[in-house]
Write the structure tokens for this entry.
Amino acid sequence: MQISFAGKRVMITAGAAGMGRATAMAMHKLGATVFTCDVDEQGLASLPEGITTFVCDVSDSSAVNAMFDQILPGGLDIMVNNAGIGGPTKPVEDVTDDEWSQCMSVCIDSQFYCTRRVVPVFKANQSGVIINLVSAAGILGFPNRSPYVAAKWAVSGFTKSMAMELGQDNIRVNGIVPGNVNGERMERVILAHAEAEGIDPAEVRRLYAIGTSMQCYVDPEEIADTICFLCSDYGRHISGQIVGVDGFTETLYPRT
Ligand SMILES: NC(=O)c1ccc[n+]([C@@H]2O[C@H](COP(=O)([O-])OP(=O)(O)OC[C@H]3O[C@@H](n4cnc5c(N)ncnc54)[C@H](O)[C@@H]3O)[C@@H](O)[C@H]2O)c1
């Protein structure tokens, strides 16, 4: 099996770090013309030459529109809605309006803003692929993470609905559930959880692992590989799926 994205134009949000960066690099390596954006200018600058970058906060619809005004005249084939933030770790009664709306706007509003712009191009081509980054928090409950859970369940619903709405135009829409992904973000989440519950971070790390059937953490490159597969011709009849790359998360909150 060999995948080539030669001749394909791809947009991946939040490509300066983590899974977005791994996906941008993987698609670039497979021959795609890659566009990415982020709020981290320095992170973007460290991407290899040949990847076109935009400093853009994807929770801001006018910034998103200005970015797509530059990209879309040349066409687009694949959209990866990757940006998302973890939101606060605290009981619902302590969540502020700003914390709630910031998490919602980065995790789900951004996917709407980007999807709304690329769909007319995909419809005109009668072809296109959209990948939305979900989370196990978008298919399970997770106490003390209510803004993130609500936003990611919205992503799951948006993904299923877009697959149904756009399938007749040969546009495929799938979600990815990354599970416990090695990297800085996971470390931040573990520390916040440990602090909120007054337990050792090593214990939180162990609890997250045993919440998955395979008792594992995965690497960002594994997520990138799955995204490449789904976006390639090998995935040409895969749509409406929420695909776990997570050793099967049974629970996000193992009770010992
Ligand atoms: N890391 C995990 O364990 C995990 C698990 C499940 C789901 N996810 C989801 O996967 C996706 C990627 O996660 P990650 O861990 O690779 O991310 P990350 O925390 O490593 O961040 C990736 C990038 O997002 C950028 N970013 C943040 N807010 C932005 C905004 N408003 N506009 C543009 N860029 C912005 C950051 O600057 C950073 O470069 C997210 O949607 C996340 O919710 C992550």
Summary: The chain has a mean pLDDT of 97.
